[in-house]
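How a chain folds remains the central question behind the approach discussed here. This step matters because it turns folding into a mapping between discrete strings. The sequence in question and its structure tokens are set out directly beneath this paragraph.
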Amino acid sequence: MTPPAVSARDWDITVFGATGFVGRLCAAYLAAHAPREVRIAVAGRSREKLAAVAAELGREVGVVVADTGDPAALARMAASTRVVLTTVGPYVRYGEPVVRACVEQGADYLDLTGEPAFVDRIIAEYDEAARARGVLVVPCCGFDSIPTDLGVLWTTRALPRDRPLTICGYMQGRGRFSGGTLASALGVLASPPPRKSRSGGSTGARKRAAAIHYQRALGRWGLPLPTIDPMIARRSARLRGDYGPDFSYAHYIALPRIYHVGLALAGAGALVGAAKIGPLRRMLTRMNPPGSGPSPEVRAKSWFKVTFVGRAGDDPPVVAEVSGGDPGYDETAKMAGETALLLVLQRDMCKSTGGVSTTAAACGELLIDRLQAAGLRFAVKQGGE
């Protein structure tokens, strides 16, 4: 069974969840940067709110009413567009119906999730069907996990790939959570981890044991950062097959002093505890309700930098870096928007033609080029071929 012809579709990119904080930013980015021939639609539950968003965008966009609890409406949305970019989370609760509709209707799917349980679920349930239909399902197209995923790819390009590769990533930055991001994070922390991740581990892509350590190349302490990013980097290594005969990756937050490590551990412990206690979790959600987020002034002062220290065998290290502005919102909208535009404008050049993929595996070098042109910085600071 083949998907509907591209010419039969009304829209090229549909932003689902466009009335939310991040969805509105994604829609605004696409409206400002997509070529005029790219047809954009905004989608969500309220036609009235969607019309208000559309009126702000400065170009003609479509309005599509759809709800995660209405499979028929999701099917109509997916059948009417080439790419669905969904910002509706927590994805473990609301994401799967959108994936199902996209796979069944032949629309490529993108999201901003950082939820390991959700990614594992869609790999298990939809990878085979998506491959058979020629549909690309690409989760984690925002700050989780593009800087890490493409930063690892960028680092491997500076290393000889005929030897085992070991890469560690160190994240630094400044920013604030939106209500939706906080709700998703609390949901992840409150849920038990998946028993066995399908996102990463495989022959030739190993999970590296992470421990607190001092990284001399950065002059920083590395504290293991339990995000989805390492899982995505390892899945990219498996899908691409060109990260050397053996590959491992570990992910850290970089902190200047050892006492900062203690403070970070205490704060993380408190957040995990709050996530598991219902009244505290609800209180935090009420204080930062979904739909709210940091102001443009706050976002203008936010930034991120991920530094990668890579080695091929026992060779001297290569130090590479990916950096940009506000990580969770402005740059996330840019990352997701450019990924969506790539799937519309350069789909025939992608390495992956279908399945549950990653940005590095599906369109890595192409997307690096687009993001560099859009202002994200990729650099090799030390060593490299």
About this structure: The CA atoms of residues 214 and 221 lie 4 Å apart. The chain has 14 helices and 15 strands.
